[in-house]
Every structure is written in C-alpha cells, then in structure tokens.
Design a protein that fits this description.
The chain is mainly α and 264 residues long. Among the domains are: 2-86, Helix Hairpins; 165-212, Helix Hairpins; 221-263. The chain has 12 helices and no strands. Helix 1 crosses helix 4 (59-82), helix 9 runs antiparallel to helix 10 and helix 11 (218-241) packs across helix 12 (252-263). The longest helix has 24 residues, at 59-82. The radius of gyration is 25 Å and the shape is extended. 5% of the residues are buried.
Length: 264
C-alpha cells in the first residue's frame, strides 16, 4: 500500500511518490511529460476547487483538494530540482524565513528590533521590494492574476504610498464619470469598438476601487452576485417547468414578472 512506503513520514512519502512518477524509465508517461508551464492550468483549477469546498463547508473534500494542491507544489519542486534550481526544502525554508521576517514582533526579541523597524505587513513588504531594487511598486504583481483581483492589488499598492482618495465621494464621482464616458462612446455613429472597450474597462476599474473603499474584495462581491443570480434564474427555470412549458417559449416580459415574484 502507498501509505506504508518504507515507513516514511507523510511528506517524505509524497516526495518519494513524486520521484517514482518522474522516473525516466519506470515513471508515469503523463507525469514525465509535464513542465512548469503545462501544470499551470491544474494549479488554477485546484485553487478554485479548494475555494469551492470552503464555500460548501465540505471538510472531507477540502482535505482531498488541499492534498491535490500540495502535490502540485511538490511536482513543481521536483521539476526545479531536476534542473538544479531549488528543491522542496528550499521552498519550505523560504516560506518560513519570509513569515518570520514579516512578523518581527513574534520572532525577534525586543532588543533585536531596530527603533525604526516596521511591524506593519505592507510596510515590511514595501521595504523588501526596495531591497530587491524594483523599478516600480507594481513590478511584482503577477500578470496572470484574475482581472478583478489584479485591479484590487494595483489600487492597494498605489494607496500604500498615498496615491488614493481619502473619502468615498470622489470615488463615486469617478464611477459616474466613467458611466458617462461609456455612454458617450456607445452613442457615437459608428461605434468604435476599441474605444468603447477601453471605457468599459475604466468603468470596471473604478467600480473595483469603489468596492475596495467600502472594505470589500471585488472578486468576493461579484462571486456572491453570481451565486445569487444563478439561484434565482434556476428558480425561474423551475417555475416555468412546473407549468409544463419550455423556457424558450416564455416571453421576456413574463420571465421578468416571474423573476420579480421570486425575488419577493
């Protein structure tokens, strides 16, 4: 059985399983073909599956999905080790070292903390970026982040150096301004798609900013809106189905009436 491989600890067992899967001669054909790039879709998929189990409060499924994500991290570590870049221990050490560095009030004695050494998480990260000689505050924001998350992170990063409105009203005014600019482009004849697209992007960015100023994360807010809309539409479908009709045969006006009935 896999759970008794050489009586190893759980993590050593997983590392050994990974090594066997990548064995040049006896390993799994699929695993031997994988690269850093090819594993990316699975990394994203597993992350979203973890979030789904948390939202459903399914603890057993969460344990399994976390295992899948851990396996991918082990896989990346093994690929890096094959290329003599780093290994799994290096990943663990760097994570531990970073957390200790960012929590000096917990892991350093009072005597070793300089008077001007910050305890603020964002300030410490800002100082780390300075040490790395980044050209911009935005340099290390991943390009592949989902758009809403990336917009939120960009805005927070700029706010960390004071480039941000200090009250809600100008943020809200900006949203209204962007709506006007969208409608202005949409009313032109002919409509220039690239300009309309740009204005729609500006509107979305400003809504993310408004959401952030109210203390929410746009990704979470929109996901909840998605879930609410999905549930209501499913109820509309069920309501129509109960009348023995196909939803395609129902007019928009009647569907709207059913929708309003379900909302109440």
């Amino acid at each position: 059985m896999l759970n008794t491989i050489e009586n190893k600890s759980a993590i050593d067992q997983l590392l050994l399983v990974m090594k066997k899967l990548r064995d040049p001669e006896l390993g799994c054909a699929w695993d031997k073909l994988q690269t850093f790039k090819s594993l990316t879709p699975y990394l994203l998929e597993e992350s979203y599956e973890i979030i789904d189990t948390i939202d459903r409060n399914d603890v057993n499924a969460l344990r399994s999905e976390l295992g899948d994500l851990l396996f991918l991290i082990v896989f990346y570590a093994h690929l890096a080790n094959e290329q003599h870049l780093f290994n799994f221990d290096d990943i663990c050490y760097e994570a531990s070292e970073k957390l200790q560095r960012r929590h000096p009030h917990l892991f350093q004695t009072q005597n070793t903390i300089a008077p001007n050494q910050p305890n603020d998480w964002e300030q410490i990260k800002h100082n780390e970026r300075k040490l790395k000689q980044k050209m911009s505050l935005l340099d290390d924001i991943p390009h592949s982040l989902p758009a809403l998350m990336k917009a939120d992170k960009i805005q927070k990063r700029c706010a960390s150096v004071g480039f941000d409105w200090q009250s809600i009203q100008p943020v809200l005014d900006k949203v209204y301004e962007e709506i006007d600019e969208v409608m202005d482009e949409a009313s032109k004849t002919p409509v220039i798609p690239s300009r309309l697209e740009e204005e729609l992007g500006d509107l979305l960015f400003s809504v993310v900013n408004l959401t952030r100023h109210f203390g929410f994360k746009s990704e979470d807010v929109l996901q909840k809106a998605n879930n609410k809309f999905e549930q209501r539409f499913r109820n509309v479908e069920q309501y129509i189905s109960n009348t023995g009709r196909d939803i395609k045969s129902v007019s928009l006006e009647e569907m709207e009436q059913i929708w309003q009935h379900i909302k109440k």
